[in-house]
Write a structure and sequence with these properties.
2 copies of one chain form a homodimer.
Chain A (H helix, E strand, L loop, with lengths): L9 H4 L1 H11 L16 E3 L5 E11 L11 H18 L3 E11 L5 H17 L3 E9 L5 E11 L14 E5 L4 H10 L4 H5 L2 H12 L5 H9 L5 E4 L4 H12 L1 E6 L7 H9 L4 H7 L6 E5 L4 H11 L3 E9 L4 E4 L5 E3 L18
Parallel strand pairs in A: 3-4, 8-11
Antiparallel strand pairs in A: 2-5, 3-5, 6-9, 6-10, 7-9, 8-10, 11-12
Helix pairs in contact in A: 3-4, 3-8, 5-7, 7-10
């Protein structure tokens, strides 16, 4: 029986033909060499009055993503999205992307093509040019390495270290949707999945697989100097607030009842064994922004958000460092913010996150 | 029995303590945040009249390196060296490096520390600042992802696509040493390894484990506009000459007897089953430069090389595209250049290259 195109593997094709295939897929978000794929390095022209932002991430099968729960197109999309979110957190404009992909030689070619298509989808959305890429063999797992390069007006980048005592703490969007979506993917057969309306299940899973980096809002916060510090919510509110406070040498008080939860996530919580606290503090990958704003800028911020239609929510206040990080619960009790963020090396079992 | 520090694993330490350890090791080649490790992205200031060069590589255990053959310090050194070599090939000055490292949680901490020390060693040599890094868990294999950023005077970068018919083809140093060194590492117990003088074995293995990126010579070729095209020899002469010729839309004639071989590599060839042709054309990872020079610039090139003490050797001439790529053997016979370069996906077994 002849092999169908779907069954062709990467090793059937060979490295150089594979490179051509990749270049075809990325054709409309690639630049001609030497400013794109093809030379030993890509050349970037600096523009005056701007600074470059550079960030990189390594994503591994079984750790950061799992093809049981996502298609390769979704994996490609999300691998780029989490890096683009780093640009959003700095207030930058993502411009260039480099991708390294390692796959076992037996990988079906269709998977590799789908992965690059997902990458292309999000690069088109954000008008990002892919300037470098290589595909090599791995022994067992798929490994994706992405470097993203953006620009920001000189001196305007949002850093983690600018929060001041008295600043108000804000988040964009709603928290916990992605974490709830992951649980639903992992427990498709569990009791509560069947009880939830299908539209709720779809919404939460979609939020996990297709997070939207908050690039435009980050740019506005930076350009108008509205935020004193910012970070994107990748590890979960508890961990990421801790990172921001450590960098700024401050403490924080947040209020549980102010943490924005979508109606879909609330429905999930009501059926599942997960508490509202766990889902909103410890589940990561929402890729919303967490940022701090001086009390003097509250009005400007609110006007901007209303005019442009952004959902932003004040969840607390920056405190002196010695007061540490606390959360006020719905019943009024105040407790130290739990350390619940994800630690790759301490999790009892390897945890898939896509 | 108490566990010795040597036996501590990455999972004993946890992600955040590990990050501190890494920052200590990299202390003298790191920059303060936000221009270094610690924010969502690093900020780079552009300098006028220059362009940025960006290159990235993904290196996997069992494919690109093998801890059977190299210490973790050597692996860290070489992972950076192969990326720095990309800057050399473009005539650039490497300035910034980002590293992503994925290791199984059971990895001894000593291995991770050694790997970062090797990286630090070469960053010190080339005055490179580490501006980003993250360490995460993998399921089985170690995975290293490096992005390197350099600068070059605007318009001076050496590209692959500039070779003209009639240009002379040059290589730096000697070819095949690294390939011979790898064979010796793989066949430590074989007959010929015992027959070779120990100093020869040490020299060749050292050339495999500690390649020297030709950064300074690349810079001179670019600055003085001596080369029309350049590439670094990572896949082997046969494959890399093909890449350069394809990018430049030209053919090439090279002479076997002109390919520079070290006396140590010649000794290896005389004892081993490998032919001089196979070792000099198909064995990669020498990280020497292959470049083309207009006949008008031969004298300037030779004066420069003599004055600065660089070994460069003319190995052939660029031909019209339709003539293809040929090699003249020692007996005068002329044949098509064999396609012997390394293809990750076609090798019959997974091949370790460090």
């Amino acid at each position: 029986m002849p092999r169908t195109p779907l069954r062709r593997t990467v090793s059937d094709l060979g490295e150089f033909t594979l490179l051509n295939t990749v270049q075809q897929i990325l054709a409309d978000c690639n630049a001609p060499s030497p400013h794109g794929i093809g030379d030993d390095a890509a050349i970037l022209q600096p523009s005056s009055g701007h600074e470059w932002l550079v960030s990189k991430d390594l994503l591994l099968e079984g750790i950061h993503f799992d093809s049981q729960y996502a298609t390769y197109r979704e994996i490609g999309y999300k691998a780029a999205a989490v890096n683009i979110s780093d640009m959003a957190a700095m207030g930058g404009t993502p411009q260039y992307l480099l991708i390294g992909l390692a796959v076992p030689p037996s990988t079906p070619l269709a998977h590799v093509r789908a992965l690059y298509r997902g990458l292309r989808d999000i690069c088109r959305t954000f008008r990002i040019t892919v300037i470098g890429g290589d595909t090599c063999a791995s022994r067992t797992d798929v490994c994706i390495s992405i470097t993203i390069i953006g620009t920001v007006k000189a001196g305007h980048a949002l850093c983690r270290n600018g929060a001041q005592v008295g600043d108000h703490i804000y988040v964009t969007g709603t928290l916990g949707d992605s974490g709830a979506g992951l649980r639903l993917l992992q427990d498709r057969t569990s009791r509560y999945t069947g009880q939830l309306p299908k539209s709720v299940v779809r919404f939460l899973i979609q939020r996990h697989l297709h997070p939207t980096p908050q690039v435009h809002l980050g740019q506005i916060l930076a350009k108008r100097r509205l935020a004193t510090a910012a970070i994107d919510l990748s590890d979960g509110l508890s961990g990421d607030l801790r990172h921001l406070c450590q960098a700024s040498h401050v403490g924080a008080d947040i209020e549980m009842s102010n943490i924005p939860i979508s109606s879909q996530c609330a429905a999930y919580i009501s059926y599942s064994h997960d508490s509202r606290m766990k889902i909103s503090l410890a589940s990561g990958e929402d890729y919303q922004l967490l940022f701090t704003v001086s009390p003097n800028n509250q009005q400007r911020l609110k006007h901007m958000a209303t005019r442009l239609g952004y959902m932003i929510t004040r969840i607390g206040t920056i405190q002196p460092s010695k007061q540490g990080l606390h959360i006020q619960l719905a019943d009024g009790a105040r407790q130290a913010l739990p350390q619940q963020s994800y630690d790759h090396f301490r999790s009892s079992s390897v945890q898939a996150r896509l």
